Amino acid sequence: MNRQQLEYFLAVAEHGSLGHAAVAAGVSQPSLSQALGTLEKEMGAALVRRVRRGAVLTPAGRAFVPHARLLLRELRRTGEVTGGPAGELDLVTTPVLAVDPCAPLLGRFRGLHPEVRVRVQVTDRDAEVPGMLADGRAEVGLAYLPLDTDGIVVRPLAEHEIMAVFSPDEPPPPDPLPVRWLAGRETVGVTGHSRQRALVGDHLAAQGVRLRVTVEVAHREMVVPLVLAGAGMSFLAGKAARWAAGQGARVRRLDPPLRQRYGLAYVPGRLSPAARALAGLAVAPDDGGRVGGGSFAG
């Protein structure tokens, strides 16, 4: 079993087609099929079943996927020890954190390490991040805290302040905005059970406030346009709130304030040089003086 065989197998698992997997891996389909056949002989089991419209994993193939990810990551890690960061880096985060701090962090990282290919996975549930790290789907996670720390290391980085966002056509709300002022307000909400939604609900409930969700959307990208159009107010964090203000929305801090801490998570002892470099960048101050969580020792 070698690195190439594992890469080809995981490409098939990801793309569901030998042809698409071969294109993604940059090889011919016959070469990919031959490598898969050799891997299956070494494993003593069929891993992939060819079907009319692609390829599906057998039960043995599905069971092998998390092990293949971890084996491949370890092969990459040991192969890069004598050199600098290279290869691929898998990161998992949530939709809000994908915008901030993930996007600027990856911009800085790619500027320093252009040879690394980064794949970002997004989950709506912060609670899924530890499992994705444990089974090898990602090396590094950015999530809101707290997280289940069983088997993972969590490094707090910074926090987002959650703001109330209103249509520019409304009378200007007070600033800062007393939470009790929001009682009965019509609200644009996002479908699902994200930690941010639960946090906002708990914060308002502690002040005896309940909102009416009158518009519920599946995609966060719809929230600001709906608020601007007068469909209701909403809550946004970090850079998303600042962007909404730039589009004309009225953005107000809450009183009492509401802040949500986020951090970096990883499985100790499994970080590749690329993942270590990203983690070190995340906890260090950037050029604007923004401080992460301090020094990174892995």
From TrEMBL:
What Pfam families does this protein map onto?
HTH_1 (PF00126), LysR_substrate (PF03466)
The record's annotation in InterPro entries points to: HTH-type_LysR_regulators, LysR_HTH_N, LysR_subst-bd, WH-like_DNA-bd_sf, WH_DNA-bd_sf
Instruction: Note the CDD domains from the entry.
Output: PBP2_LTTR_substrate
Q: Which residues form the HTH lysR-type domain?
A: 1-58
What's in the keyword line of the UniProt record?
Answer: DNA-binding, Transcription, Transcription regulation
Q: Which domain of life is it from?
A: Bacteria
The protein's matches in PANTHER family, at most eight in alphabetical order, are given as: HTH-TYPE TRANSCRIPTIONAL REGULATOR YBHD
Name the protein family: Belongs to the LysR transcriptional regulatory family.
Name under which the protein is recorded: LysR family transcriptional regulator
Biological source species: Streptomyces eurythermus
